[in-house]
Design goal:
CATH architecture of the largest domain: 3-Layer(aba) Sandwich
CATH class of the largest domain: Alpha Beta
Number of helices: 10
Strand content: 15-25%
Radius of gyration: 20 Å
Amino acid sequence: MATTSQSFPRLPADARKSGAATSRPGVEIAPLARAQSVLDLVGNTPLLEIKRLTPGLIPAGVRIFAKLEGFNPGGSVKDRPAKNMLETGIAEGKLKPGKVILESTSGNTGIALAMLGVALGYPVELVMASNVSRERKKIIEAFGAKIHYSDPQEGSDGAILMCREMLEKNPERYFKPDQYNNEANSLAHFNTTGPEIWRQTRGEITHFIAAIGTGGTVMGTGRFLKTKNRNVQVIAVEPDDPMHGLEGLKHMASSIVPGIYHENQLDDKIPVSTEDAYEMVYRLAETEGLLVGQSSGAAMVAAIKVANSIRAGTIVTVFCDFGDKYLSTNLWIGWQEWRLKRKK
């Protein structure tokens, strides 16, 4: 259902009557609410139209929106599956007092589990490649979780294998959410991310685009959107090379493929280079005032590519996190060099 409508986002009539706050006319802001736990703060993230970057880059009849997952309490999209996997584990009796939460991660899922482990009262141990960003390591440590470091040359796959070995040696000690194979991961997005996007676009979405790490976001959100409109195109984004610099993303052909990732359910998959993703991060900061991570840059590159393949439509992509977790990485070294070149 392609559209050029400018009708959303808008404030519902009942919210206008109740005096809900808005930052400017015509922009819907949810009223403040009390929460009983940090778990209650997961989800309901804002959807932002990307407007300053896109003039001249995409057709006039196409709109691009980004779901800003950095507004989750743990700072990323991974809060959603982490919460659902832990709550499902508790409900099924697999996560119970005395157990330690154990998971392999590239960083964001680890942060989410460390945060939610505190809230639920469970200790957390994480396995991650030793070359993940310094900021992610410090955040995890601040929550009191224990980190086991795997070989940096083996990336996320090395962390997966090391985590499996730890679990096999002491299965009674650990509860492993297993984000790569646990359907509660993609179900978190089916139950929350998908409905939020459908509601926020008033059902006008025509294309959904998400970068793939575990595959949970694109699979779960995509499946929900297809139940609402089977014509919605669901598109995955991956690095174009096995030796990429897009932390958290998987090049599927050269990686351990997650059990929850089903490529036959996708309408398309777009490869993006590390260089293009990095440059898009810099451009988003310069034009939109958005400091995002490299996976968000990759998603935006793909969104612009899709936009130029259609005449009209509403594209929604996911900005998985903000860029403050990468200020010590090559991403931001490149940003400084890019700014210097722009000044010359």
